[in-house]
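Predict fold of AhpC/TSA family protein; 183 aa.
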Amino acid sequence: MAVRPPVCEFGAKAPDFRLPDPDGRVFSLKDVAGPRGTLVMFICNHCPYVQAVIDRIQRDAAELQRLGIGVVAISANDVATYPQDAPELMKIEAERHSFSFPYLYDETQQVARAFGAECTPDFFGYNAARELQYRGRLDASGRAPGAPDARRELFEAMALIAETGQGPHDQIPSMGCSIKWKV
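Predicted 3D structure, encoded as tokens:
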């Protein structure tokens, strides 16, 4: 069942975190934050919505990093129920798509809860003051990739944030699989 997260709560502060990547290196928000903003993405390996746009995510992340936006991806799914989202497979996924950003594992799911993440993919775009300015979708893609010339909504929003510190007021929520919470 597809889930749509709520609209952007402008100005909400980014929660801090300390999470490992699959190799055990620990990253905090400070470690991944960019001088002109930060994009925190909740993704996972198995979700068809993520898989439909994973190459677009990497493309946009690399371009945003050149604009001074820090980028990080976090997987918070319960790997007991969804073993394809386990850290060793996250590492393979990151290598397969040449991620230019850390892909971190939120085993306790506390970070996902602190952010209010609801689905994969779920995007949180912060300005340099770590104030939320974007909680929308990547583009018009769904379970299948959108048109090759689909408007790059996330990229445009984050580029605006890098330039002005403010996100667009009109945002369309992301849509994806619900985060697989532990019971």
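The two ends are 18 Å apart (CA to CA).
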